[in-house]
Amino acid sequence: VVLVVDFGAQYAQLIARRVREARVYSEIVPSTMPVAEMLAKNPRAIILSGGPSSVYAEGAPTLDRALFEAGVPVFGMCYGFQLMATTLGGTVDDNGAREYGRTALSVSKSGSTLFEGTPGEQSVWMSHGDACSAAPEGFTVTASTDVVPVAAFENDEKKLYGVQYHPEVMHSTYGQQVLEHFLYRGAGIEPKWTTTNVVEEQIALIREQVGTKRAICGLSGGVDSAVAAALVQKAIGSQLTCVYVDHGLMRKGETEQVEKDFVAATGVKLRVVDAEKRFLDALAGVSDPEQKRKIIGREFIRVFEQAQAEIVAEAAGGEDVAFLVQGTLYPDVVESGGGTGTANIKSHHNVGGLPEDIEFKLVEPLRQLFKDEVRMVGQELGLPEEIVQRQPFPGPGLGIRIVGEVTKERLDLLREADAIAREELTAAGLDRDIWQCPVVLLADVRSVGVQGDGRTYGHPIVLRPVSSEDAMTADWSRLPYETLAKISTRITNEVADVNRVVLDVTSKPPGTIEWE
Ligand code: XMP
């Protein structure tokens, strides 16, 4: 394993992903973890991430010198670089040399381990106030910029390396290459990690954990729960039962996709609960977004618990059903501070989230994986492309894409409009370019239009295509006008009561991706 020591900010996750892209397994640990504990994990290499502090700020995270003396190769980036410099006797000061954003880097020693085979001048992404003015003893300075004399250094003998910039961001042109040089050449690691290893390892682990007992899995139609279920199914076969709650807020064809395609690909035992009426009754008369979310979440848990209880009751020995499968991903684990001690950034409440008095033990086979890796695992398990490449869709479904009260008629109308938008985006080959494209019905708004020879008084549909890496921030997608035109024409022609299509051109922040 390669450990990525997290000094705050959001860099550590990106670094861990880049290491895995280099086919080396990585894990994130908090900078507060004692060095002895880090070393006990037997890391092949350690990477120190960037962070928001100045090394001289009061309470800034520090690092025990022992880390650099254990014979484990270390690569410091940005804050990690400065910490390495000061800990080992170099000089970092605030000489007014601030650099933010794209910066030209001059590589002064082309024979270096990190920069071998990369150009003497390269574009890198900087973000720092303090700067290193003298490298520690025994280190060679390998790069500089106009304002920073020491922008990279290395001590090849001790296997210690550092760069002032962020090689993990895509704006650092040779960043991935430099990282790979550290891993392969500096640390001597062979790139062998693949998702095939994960599948085999997880299947063995699940079998060991579950034994002869039974497990239940809630399927939402999303990628994560589908891949988790397929993996568990492969491990324990008919000991698994999946429950899919159809709350009537799904998009067109979604329930059928789970009922047919997913079952066909996995052979899973599936129980579909038709709860449309129950959800719509509970939502009647409600327009407030938060209230809608609460109602949907509450009803979902009730229906799911009831299905669980039925499955337990039907099982010969009820206590047999002891496990609940969850599609928890690595970012969820890191962000909720699970096991790593990092700050709680965002607790995402999923519909289907666990009631507090849960009596099941959890099976979470995707806990180590990033989203793109989950997709690869899904592919390996033979899941259909439509499931594996599915864009994110919120648990409360179309219920939070109707601004106003949720009714069956409005849902049907939105389902049509959404299906048209998805069809045209797919036809234009744009699915991979956008993160997701919520289609929103402004049910409480009406505007005047003219269709045929008559006046209409209909509702607008909003298109909200966004690009994003992690949904925490997003930008609106610059879709081709022809595609927008086609979607607009088809929706206004084919969907009754819609006489206007508008495009949302707001980034996140300030606007969230969903409208509610
Ligand atoms: P926002 O609207 O907060 O959405 O910018 C960020 C991402 O999360 C999805 N989303 C949800 N997913 N349950 C979910 O499983 C929810 O309650 C929920 N609310 C928003 C949204 O589609 C986007 O991908």
UniProtKB/TrEMBL annotation:
Cross-referenced InterPro entries: Class_I_gatase-like, GATASE, GMP_synth_C, GMP_synth_GATase, GMP_synthase, GMPS_ATP_PPase_dom, NAD/GMP_synthase, Rossmann-like_a/b/a_fold
PROSITE patterns in the record: GATASE_TYPE_1, GMPS_ATP_PPASE
Gene Ontology MF annotations: ATP binding; GMP synthase activity
Transmembrane segments: none
EC code(s) of this entry: 6.3.5.2
Record domain GMPS ATP-PPase: where: 193-390
GO cellular component: cytosol
Protein residues bound to ATP: 220-226
Record field: catalytic activity: XMP + L-glutamine + ATP + H2O = GMP + L-glutamate + AMP + diphosphate + 2 H(+)
Active site: 78 (nucleophile), 166, 168
Described purpose of this protein according to its UniProt entry: Catalyzes the synthesis of GMP from XMP.
Subunit field text: Homodimer.
Protein's UniProt name: GMP synthase [glutamine-hydrolyzing]
Name of encoding gene: guaA
